[in-house]
Design goal:
- By secondary structure, the chain is an alpha+beta fold.
- It folds into two domains: about 100 residues; about 45 residues, no CATH class.
- Helices cover about 15% and strands about 35% of the residues.
- The strands form two sheets. Strands 1-2-6-5 form a four-stranded antiparallel beta sheet, with no helix packed on it. Strands 4-3-7-8 form a four-stranded antiparallel beta sheet.
- The termini are far apart.
Length: about 160
Amino acid sequence: MKFFHKISIDRLNPNYISGWCYNRFNKRNVVNLCLRYRGEVLSRTSANIFREDLLELDLHPTGKCGFELIIDPPVARFEKKAYTLTLEHSVRPLAVIDSDLFNREKKEGLREKVGSLLPSFPRPYPLLLFMHIPKTAGTTFNTQVSTLLPRNKIATHI
């Protein structure tokens, strides 16, 4: 299934998952997703929300492949196991989400010290600082990071 679909999870908390997903061979078809726990469907959604960043990066022809999934009751009420994000009519996982990812505690440190210099990165994104030495592929690195993360979640120059 993973071969046929491209998926990314951008935001994750006990009540909410968002990201994007599309069929690699038929990008205009809307993908219907389910969050499952032990095979039971907890929530359903369709990946049809417009994502300007995917359109600008030329990852999707229309940009309409974003999804938002509300989890009720929240994940924290279940025992610590793996949750799966699947297609609506399949049990094969597109993504496996360990419940520990939902329950990360905020770590104090460099992120708080740097504060307003950097954009705020929602979980699960870690704080990444890259110091560029001239003529050592810094522009290539910035371009690669820009294709992996949403545009509003990175700062290429501070």
